[in-house]
Structures are given as structure tokens and as C-alpha cells.
Amino acid sequence: MFYHISLEHEILLHPRYFGPTLLETVRKKLFTEVEGTCNGKYGYIVAVTTIDSVGLGIIQPGRGFVLYPVKYKAIVFRPFKGEVLDATVVQVNKVGIMTQIGPLQCFVSRHSIPNDMEFDPNSTPPSYHTDDSEVVIEEGSHVRLRIMGTRVDATEIFSIGSLLDDYLGPIS
Asked: pTM value?
């Protein structure tokens, strides 16, 4: 799920950046430091939308660097258990499929794929398909899945999913 939330970050600047373009430098550095990263509490920071305030800089004793507290708003992506998402299959093997949902990787075990789908290691590329080959899941396929669980680390989110429910599975 996507959220628009207020966050804070501290920017450390070298004295060579002091001057008339200081605020522009702080803005650029904020974008490069936080966009595309994962915050364990809030999820993946997709984009910074607005910068609310840049606080007064605090000089770091003995170094000359200045620490600027910045308050900003950002769009974040945080998956939750039970959420239904569309994903792209990036790997297929006998134990299941690995999918990509934006920055999030999700593993779907063989036991969470419908029983009528069999793994075919001899097909090129390897795939899961029904007996009549009407439904096929292979690399590059798009699937709709349900998040069954997530594990959050400080810099990454891991998830497992399932295709065992109504309206889940390959989508065209």
C-alpha cells in the first residue's frame, strides 16, 4: 500500500557547499540520500514530494561539517499481510516462483501455487502450467498474489505470497 507521510532526515554538508546555492544543495542531497531506500518502520521511500522545512545548521565541532535537519513529505510503499498485489515473475524453479513488486521481492512456494499447475523443467523457459497448457506461469508473466507474511529488516522488506485464492494467479 502507498502512503503520503511526513518524515525527517539529517543532511551533513561539507563547508565547500556553503554559499548562495546552499538550499538547492540540501534539496538535491535529500533526494539522492532518501529516494529509493528502505526505512524499516515506514517501508520503501518512493519519492520525496515536498520539503516542509530546512532547520538551522549545527556545526560539527572539530570537523567543520554542518548538520541540517530537514522535514519533508514522501510517498512510501509498505506491504501488509493479506494485501493483494500485482507482480512480475522473475524466476521459476521447482520450489516455487520469485516475483518482483516494484522494489519488493516476494517468494511464492510450490505449496502456494494451485494443485492443478505442474512444474515443467524441460520447457524453455521453465514454467508452471496446467495439463492443457492453457494457464502458464513463466519468467516475465504477470501474476496477482496475496501477501501471506512479511519480515522487516532495517534496510529491506522480505515477503512470501500465495496464489491459492479466488481471482489470484496469472493475469494478462
From this structure: 0.83
Cell of 129: 502450467
To the nearest 5 percent, what fractions of the chain are helix, strand and coil? 10, 55, 35
Nearest Cα neighbor of 91 from 58, 137, 132 is 137
Instruction: Verify cis geometry, omega within 30 degrees of 0, for the bond prior to 125.
Output: yes
CB 125 within 8 A of CB 138: yes
C-alpha cell at 24: 538547492
Which three-class secondary structure state does DSSP give residue 25? helix
Report d(CA 20, CA 124) in Å as an integer.
Answer: 59
Q: Are 72 and 108 in contact (CB under 8 A)?
A: no
Strand-pairing partners, residue 84, are 146
Q: What is the pLDDT of residues 117-164, one digit of tens each?
A: 999 989 888 999 999 988 999 999 999 999 999 998 888 889 999 999
